[in-house]
Amino acid sequence: MKHSSEAPHSVYGVEKWGKGLIEVTEGGEIGLRNPLAPEAPAISLPGILRDLDQRGIRAPMILRISSYLENEIAHINESFAAAIARADYKGCYRGVFPIKVNQQAQVIDRIVEFGQKYDYGLEAGSKPELVIALAHRLAKEALIVCNGVKDAEFIQLAILSRKIGFNTVIVLESPKEADTVIEVYNELGIEPLLGVRVKLTNQISGKWEESSGDRSAFGMNTDQLVAVVDKLRDAGLIQCLKLQHSHLGSQVPDVNDVRRAVGEACRYYTELTREGVPLTHLDLGGGMGVDYTGEKKATENSINYTVEEYCANVVETVAYAMDEAEVEHPTLVTESGRAVVATSSMLVFNVLESTLYDAPNGPEVEPDDHHMVADLAAVHGYLSHERLQECWNDANFYRNELRALFRRGYVDLRQMARAERIYLSLMARIKALVASEHVETDVDDQLEKLADIYHCNFSLFQSLPDVWAIDQLHPIVPLQMLDQTPDRRAVLSDITCDSDGKIDRFILADGVSPSLPVHTLPEDDDYYMGVFFVGAYQETLGDLHNLFGDTNVVTIDIKPDGGFDLLHEQEGDTISEVMAYVEFDPSDCVAAFRKMVDEAISTGTLKAKDRKTLMSAYRDSINGYTYYE
To answer: Which part of the chain is the Orn/DAP/Arg decarboxylase 2 N-terminal domain (predicted)?
Structure first.
């Protein structure tokens, strides 16, 4: 429990996880800072929403901040450049962005734009992603790294793209894939640019530890690697093998895991070089993590290193290994996705209503009420700090006994309603006593089970799939009223008809909590929530639970003077669009509904004058937003 002398907003820990991008303004609102203009004041996020609302763009929405994306690309590239200079490293850095992490056109277009001066490229793990990559005019030295399972068509396109200047690297994942490459080469007569993916035995810690080690899904073991090298040599293609790919893992929490994995990758690189393989590039895959919680610890949702430390560890480890083996320093490649794009997007939604688990006052006991109703009400008479646990025990005992009596028919509906209201009024007083103590108590922990439910205008399954599927944590905080002490605690329920559609783990200043401190909902204004750092995966993994589609998406650029420019707006899915996703033809649905309306007129159950109103309502709905309006 926070002491009253601290700022009301300190409970949310924004200063810990905000990365200098998110802060609380003097007016108690979430503010966004421009990292490209650090002297500029923060711009109010609720102010942005009010401006967008006037333009007809409403929550729920994904809000992308262009300058955040530009800043992260610069940060990673310049940190590698600085580490290379400090270590007197003889190679250079060529990063690539994995398209799978965020496939949205506005994101990829800006990554290519901001990455031009760094020769920043793209990673494609499928044919559709390769098609996207080849539609972008990359810098001359930029790479397109092709990972994943590849058929002959994929390989043919990758090889042919070299004819128009793309540095498209086909990373061989298996001996069978090497056979396919050789077949396509024999048909085309064009030499490919090749890489080979090597499984590392070192396994990282963290949520995605299964993506590393020799049980990982992709890449070859040592025996397969040697077989592929021999195949390429026999086919006259060994000179095409330029890149070794060794994926470190995903969201690696511990920098020492990075060092160990890079060291093992270097051993393969130097041994392949001794085998006569003319390698020039060492691709260390993904792994650079994001500190979602601000803990700066090696935990599932945090990391114990900075971008600068990550880059320094990679460069120093490779430099030492290559110098020891007397091998030329390779061009370093990483496929950081989460670290590039996570911070650039946030989900914003409004709270529609609340279900409260306390009440300001209870009703009077009536003469004919069961004696346990009076016993429950009598707890009010001895409720105090000293008897807090006793009162908690008594209140729950009497309430549970009354529920049992109701089920057996000894208590009627109105008595039960009065009892529930009395119980809720006791909970309100107990919560107030616990809050005033400023110390943790056993009752405080038990009260977490009575957190309110704030019903919110979003779909967890569409916009935050990792929160539901793998317990990913994202910072979540109210966007306004942060100069006022939160007077309630709540879990967040989404708009879907699914009991799993809720968030009940929150990042706070003092750790992870099963409830979020919130404010009593204002009567005359929207109460907004923001979920931050959702740019990685959340925009592309969502499903259509209850046919809630994509939200509105807005891309803005924060101006140095404190304003913003609206760069792009993508309207969210309409009902007709999501119907088409699941194989319904909207026009057929309109026709079928019209037929039933006309039949109702024929049988007299509907008046002819109501036909227009009913058909208009159906058409308006089918063309409307899937979320609450």
So the answer is: 92-342
Domain that residue 353 falls in: 1-65+342-357+451-572
Residue 587: C-alpha distances to residues 228, 547, 548, 626 (Å): 54, 17, 20, 18
Give a yes or no: residue 588 inside a domain: yes
- Residue 57 covered by a domain: yes
Q: What is the pLDDT of residues 363-401, one digit of tens each?
A: 999 999 999 999 999 999 999 989 999 999 999 999 999
Report the relative pairing of strands 167-172 and 193-197 from DSSP bridges: parallel
- What DSSP letter does each residue of 323-356 carry, written as one string? HHHT-PPPEEE----HHHHGGGEEEEEEEEEEE-
- Contact between 440 and 476 (Cβ < 8 Å): no
Query: Does the pLDDT at position 568 exceed 90?
Result: yes
What CA–CA distance (Å, rounded) separates 321 from 313? 12
Secondary structure (3-state) at 524: coil
- The pLDDT assigned to 1 comes to 42
* pLDDT over threshold 60, residue 2: no
Query: Could you give the CA distance from residue 23 to residue 315 in angstroms, rounded to a whole number?
Result: 33
Distance from C-alpha of 40 to C-alpha of 245, rounded to nearest angstrom: 42
Q: Report the pLDDT value the prediction gives residue 249, as an integer from 0 to 100.
A: 85
Averaged pLDDT score across all residues of the chain: 94
> Does the structure show a pLDDT above 90 at 179?
yes
Q: Do 115 and 225 fall within a single domain?
A: yes
Residues 352 and 400 placed together within one structural domain of the fold: no
Give a yes or no: residue 542 inside a domain. Answer: yes
Q: Mention every residue, 6+ apart, whose C-beta is less than 8 A from residue 12.
A: 475, 477, 482, 508, 509, 517
CA angle 205–209–211, rounded 5-degree value: 145
Instruction: Please tell me the distance from the alpha carbon of residue 46 to that of residue 5, in angstroms, as a whole number.
Output: 26
For the chain, how big is the Rg over CA atoms in Å? 30
Model confidence over 152-176: pLDDT tens digits?
999 999 999 999 999 999 999 999 9
Are 172 and 297 contained in the same domain?
A: yes
Question: Per the structure, how many domains does the chain have?
Answer: 4
CATH of the domain at 258: 3.20.20.10
pLDDT at 117 over 90: yes
Cβ atoms of 105 and 133 closer than 8 Å: no
* Same domain assignment for residues 460 and 429: no
Distance CA 416, CA 426 (A): 15
Report the distance separating Cα 466 and Cα 540, nearest Å: 11
Residues 61 and 194 in one domain: no
Do 551 and 627 form a contact (C-beta atoms < 8 A)?
yes
279 close to 273: Cβ distance less than 8 angstroms: yes
Residue with tokens 């107030």, as numbered in its chain: 432
For 208, the token pair is 């995605």
- Cα torsion 462, 516, 295, 466 to 10°: value is -10
- Of residues 542 and 353, more confidence is placed in 353
Task: Copy the structure tokens of residue 491.
Answer: 């879990």
pLDDT confidence band for 207 (50 / 70 / 90): low
**Are 143 and 280 within one domain?**
yes
**Residue 16 belongs to a domain with what CATH number?**
2.40.37.10
Cβ atoms of 626 and 574 closer than 8 Å: yes
Query: Once rounded to an integer, what is the mean pLDDT over residues 531-553?
Result: 94
Q: Is 388 helix (H, G, I), strand (E, B) or coil?
A: helix
Query: Are 467 and 509 found together in one domain?
Result: yes
Enter the DSSP assignment of 573.
Answer: P
In a domain? residue 235: yes
Q: What is the 3-state secondary structure (H, E, C) of 276-341?
A: CCCCCEEECCCCCCCCCCCCCCCCCCCCCCCHHHHHHHHHHHHHHHHHHHCCCCCEEECCCCHHHH
